[in-house]
Amino acid sequence: MNQGKKYKAIVLIALIIGISISTAFGQQVECSSRAERVTAVTNANGHLITTKFQFDVPNLQPLLTTTFIASGPTCVVAHLSGLARITDNYVVFQVRIDGVPMRGHTFLPGVNTPVVFRTIDANPEYEDEQFIDPTKVVSYNFFASVPPGEHTVQVLAAAGSNIIAGLEPSVNALVLTLEYR
Q: Which of 9, 44, 72, 178 lies 20 to 30 angstroms, CA to CA, from 165?
């Protein structure tokens, strides 16, 4: 087989795999509504993360909670941002509305709990900097469709399995902002 045919075959195989993977992960999910209201919550004292995220039995600790009243069926958009000080390998976050994780999370291999995560970079070029100040920006967006009425939104978190007392991971300037109708 000549080079041109090999290249076309590789491109065709990659295209088929890409289509298969996108089909396996399902269809795009969307919600929309006009945002007339905004609710925001923070804790000026920050949060120590003392809960270990175990892959066999995932644990999450609550960090922020707020409620809002939707005037009608609405698409709620949640923006979460802050500064995470990672003292082990990673931290994970989950934003729930009425006890259900909102859209925008991912699944870690072997774990059925949807979360978003931030890890310490694996690049040895930056290892010294990471050990001196392992603070990383975290910023995520989520959404969910909800019926009219009162709803509760929670931000939960956990960290790697090597939490050391006195050197716990932490999150500062953590802000949850909700947009809804």
A: 44
